[in-house]
Input
Amino acid sequence: MTHFFDPDVVTAVLRHMNGDHGSDNLLIARAFAPEEQNAITDAAMTGFDGEGGEWTYTRGGTASVLRVPWPGGPIAERPAVRREVVAVYQFACERLGVEPRPHA
Output
């Protein structure tokens, strides 16, 4: 059964991801969205649950939704959200051949 996080947790994580990690959101969208001719020009994290994260990205003026499962499997604890978002970011870097920056 999918775990759903409290709305306050979701709001805080999305505020952080979209306020402090906009370039990471773009990198994640570019790594996991289906390949097409037009480049992805914008991306934002729009939600998550215990199964994965969700991003909305823009390509050729059209918005689309991207769902990425957590690399470590389903989660149900708040600290695991950060761990899994970092894992998604690192996997995105690997897929795109980008050197990931260190995470404290």
Q: What stands out?
A: The mean pLDDT is 96. The longest helix spans residues 78-96.
